[in-house]
Amino acid sequence: MKRPIIAGNWKMNNNKEGTKKLIAEIAPLVKDAECEVVVCVPFTDLETARKAARGTNIQLGAQNVHWAEKGAFTGEISADMLAEMKVKYVIVGHSERRQYFGETDATVNMRTKAALKAGLKVILCVGELLSERESKKTAEVVTRQTTEALKDITKQELKKIVLAYEPVWAIGTGRTATSQDANDTIKVIRKVVRKLFGRAAAQSVRIQYGGSMNAKNAKELMAMPQIDGGLIGGASLKAEDFAKVVNFNA
Ligand code: PGA
């Protein structure tokens, strides 16, 4: 049995005070969760979040990582720096990074490898744009993104990777993919993993859905056979909403 994983992606929200408060509110609500619980906070909140989550089942995540170990990369953060902050997971290739910050399939791959090398686990995001969905390119896009992102990754390393399927048109829009659509596309992604790593790896890799997942639709999405978790943006900023997603089975 795969353990589901629900991760909050706070994006550029919350200061130190807000971080402390939100984690203190979430912790008691998710303490009996059957799934893994992660919150991915801004870099500047990592230390506060680490302290606030100490002794709880909430794991610490970051939202991006640079591919180089160190050097002249103004404004960037290395994987070792994150590991030193006790970060367990890092999101790589989020569509907002691809859209606004020039992230490419190649840099997603480089960042993934750097994170793994530093001992971090990776939440690796793929997903199509609305125009790509409308022109029936969804399968082609997620196949390319997944293949490129996992280039030169070993079977052993894959165990440290959680994939996240996030259709870009469903992020922050209130428009969720139907559970059937999400399931179908995740099936395509799993097929890619199977081609690259074999049947057992494809079966055991966890693939999340993300995009307007919330307290109301989590149960239905999580009931789909291909969906092993969620990456939650907006609904992760309110303790009760996030806890309801985490406790989707309750
Ligand atoms: P959303 O964001 O839940 O606000 O749609 C999800 C994400 O971007 O990871």
What do you see in this structure?
The protein is α/β, with parallel strands linked by helices and 250 residues long. The chain has one domain (5-246): TIM Barrel (Alpha-Beta Barrel), CATH 3.20.20.70. It is 43% helix and 16% strand. The protein has helices at 16-30, 46-53, 79-84, 95-100, 105-117, 130-134, 138-149, 155-158, 179-197, 199-204, 218-222, 239-246, and strands at residues 5-9, 36-40, 58-62, 89-92, 121-126, 161-165, 206-210, 229-232. The protein has an 8-stranded parallel beta barrel, surrounded by 6 helices. Helix 5 (105-117) packs parallel to helix 7 and helix 7 (138-149) crosses helix 9 (179-197). The longest helix has 19 residues, at 179-197. The protein is globular. 46% of the residues are buried. Bound molecules: 2-phosphoglycolic acid.
Count every beta strand, where a strand is a DSSP E run of 2 or more residues: 8
**What radius of gyration results from the CA coordinates?**
17 Å
Strand order of the largest sheet: 1-2-3-4-5-6-7-8
Number of helices: 12
Q: What would you call the structural class?
A: alpha/beta
CATH level 4 superfamily: Aldolase class I
Mean pLDDT over the full residue set = 97
| CATH architectural arrangement | Alpha-Beta Barrel
Largest sheet: number of strands, sense, barrel closure: 8 strands, parallel, barrel
Q: CATH class, anyone? A: Alpha Beta
Bound molecules: 2-phosphoglycolic acid
Number of discrete domains: 1
Percent helix range: 40-55%
Give the low-pLDDT segments: none
Give the SSE string.
EHEHEHEHHEHHHEHHEHEH
What percent of residues are in strands?
15-25%
Straight-line distance between termini: 18 Å
CATH topology category name: TIM Barrel
How would the global form be characterised?
A: globular
